[in-house]
Hints:
A: about 140 residues, about 0% strand, B: about 150 residues
Amino acid sequence: MVEEEGRGHLRASDADREQAIDMLKAAFTQDRLAKDAFEARVGQAFAARTHAELAAVTADIPAPVIPDQPPGISTRVREQRTRREMSQGELAAVLGVSRQTVISIESGRYLPSLPLAFTIARFFGLTVDKMFGRGGEMAGP
Amino acid sequence: MMAFIPPRLRKPAGIAMAGVVFAAAWLVRGGPLWWVAIPALVAAPARAMYLYWGGGQDTDAGALAGSRADERQQLLSLQSRALACNLAVIAAFIGLTVAIAVKAAWWWPFLVILGVAGLGYLFGLLNYGVTEAGTPDDVDAGHQTRSPVNS
């Protein structure tokens, strides 16, 4: 846990302690910490009262690497649309829905029904799985 | 009948018709309050014109007013109507409870509202297929159904 400037004196919450312990667990499974050191530091994390004390426990542990997230549904629809240089209104007219619905799909506020999902995927020449599957790779013409 | 009316005119026409019927009820009732029919006759067409104007707007509300809602807008409308119905039922229940407590004679309209709502709910369950339980396909076959994914 990296101590943010000026926050060290603030009291730590249970969530902060759990975050620090998660970092310690990750470090232990990666052989960065021996078992004794891991147990001692977990005890220190549980006992820590401030952010500074938590930061001291995890100071020599590198921050976890967050993997890149696959493009979401909304991103894929927007990307496919912009690739074809279409406006939201033009896509809406083709799909037979309102412009507001295209905006909602692109912003991730609305998941289309199965028939509409098929229509969208067919229009972009993709399978529904590639268009809307979570974690599916971006593919297309 | 609604199919013969252009979509954008459906809701305004319904509002105008409801206003006329409401005003007619006040006129038939007569008495010193007959004049309530006049503001009703003015307000209903005004509301109908506003709806007609709104029906031409490129918004969610415009699509609903113009009876050209797509699936998301229909879902919004459905959720809003369900919320309104829930609130109406709660209000009717409170009204019924209060009317009974104060020994009022006007308790029965609340009961009618609750009854209609309950029957409407049951009708909805029947109409939309809740009784179609179906038979699991692994009962008659005598073996467990295998997932097509794992087979």
